[in-house]
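Side project, low priority. Logging it here so it doesn't get lost.
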Amino acid sequence: MPSDTSKHTAAAAEPAPPPATPQGPLAGIRILDMATVIAAPFSASLCADMGAEVVKLELPEGNDPLRSLSPTTPDHALFWKVSNRGKKGVSLDVRKPEGRALFLRLIASFDVLVENFRTGTLDKWGLDAPTLWSVNPRLIILRVTGFGQTGPYAQRPGFARIFEAMSGFAHLTGESGRSPQHMNYPLGDVIAGLFGAFAISTAIAERHRHPDAPGREIDLAATEAMFRLLEALPVEHEVLGQARSRSGSRATYTAPSNMYRTADGHWVTIVGSSDPIFKRICQAMGRPALAHDPRFATTPDRVRNIDEIDAIVAGWCECQTLAQLSEALTRGGVPHSKVYAVDDVMADAHFIAREAIIRLPDPDLGSLPAPAIVPRFSGFKPAAPRTGPAAGEHNAEVYGALGLGGEALGRLQRDGVI
């Protein structure tokens, strides 16, 4: 029998894992992002985080509305800088004949085109899908709109709050008997962006399996993306005859699950979404017998008596400071959290330990804080991406690769093409 020492020696001789590389899973994929504002550009940004080369195309004036959307300073578009991180920037007016011709030369070397114009806009400019595929037969085209490329609403403009309202999402948000509410952030846009990045990755995976497959056109309706999140609601309505509505912060499908105020004025969310967790809540409150009360013994029982159990938990929380409450719930293994503001997130020891907030190098402001790359792949340790580019910042580099020299670029700039 080998000794313990020999086992340890053998283990020590095993090769170490290879060092992490800055090359991400999407390295080698080229994406041309000609979209504006948030949803579709966020799709491209997520792909840039994963190693794709993303080129941001703007009009020569650089008039993307995101450049004026808060947060801004008098001199800098902060939202633009962090939202378009990791991208190169070119300018081009594809509405001009020379701009259209240059665009077709450019797109021939890209894997993906991302756009979010109203349905039919690119067709009107002579950049319909067959034309794009004639110069790049394998091109993946992601089209992000509010309502899709077909249907009676296809021509309607779309904004995050419209997606949230029409999907049924906003109907769930707010206090019972009072106005529906939107959150103070364009959630509908970033959700659509997540679906867009998923769609691009899916199309890339398909192309990897079938290298000779023709290009794909992806029709992403942001309202449908929001509705996709609510997958249990249609069956709840059809089978049970219920149209779920808002109930404040209280969940009506499990209990107790709500936000509760502490004695020192903080808000804490507590989730008792199973019978074992509810028993632990009862232990933490010093009332273990509640777990055997027939009104509260199972999740359906607690939902039927939701007002009573919620009042008991709320009354207990009101008598505890945040520190006391957190200590009792942590000791009992009860899922809970203080409701964080962004300054709490940035100061939290766990977020700091995981480097969940990174610094994006910025030529104007030195660096800016932003969320880290998500998710984390083994063997991939990326450098922090740079903030979003100035309009046309990389014209010489990108167009130079097409053979355009300084004189040609100067003339195109004077003519308003770039």
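Brief comment: The longest helix spans residues 187-209.
Revisit when time allows.
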